[in-house]
């Protein structure tokens, strides 16, 4: 599972071995240990599918995504493969980036103001030279 910057999660997997008789995959999701309905609730995926995008994952929540291959009868379904993850809070990261940018801008403006004051003091405020 790859957590992306926009708050979505990309789930990718390799084809199962053996792939003969594979009809597709079943994807089930849960969060914080309780079964909850959200976009990937009991999703059926085709046999050629190798990735799934969970569009809006909430930050700070523990997710569990389980992928189970589905085979044609009489072959029994193998156990599901599960992955657990948490998405970092994006808002906090954005606030830190914004504060750093604003702080840097303020420092640059203060340097320009100091240079301007030094220039004015040196060139405009100095006493006239005696003749």
Automatic annotation (TrEMBL):
Membrane-traversing stretches: 95-121
InterPro entries with a match to the protein in the record: Fndc10 (IPR034446)
Pfam family name, one: Fndc10
UniProt keyword annotation of NADP present: no
Keywords: Membrane, Transmembrane, Transmembrane helix
The keyword Transmembrane helix appears for this protein: yes
Lineage: superkingdom: Eukaryota
Entry protein name: FND10 protein
Lineage, uppermost ranks: Eukaryota, Metazoa, Chordata, Craniata, Vertebrata
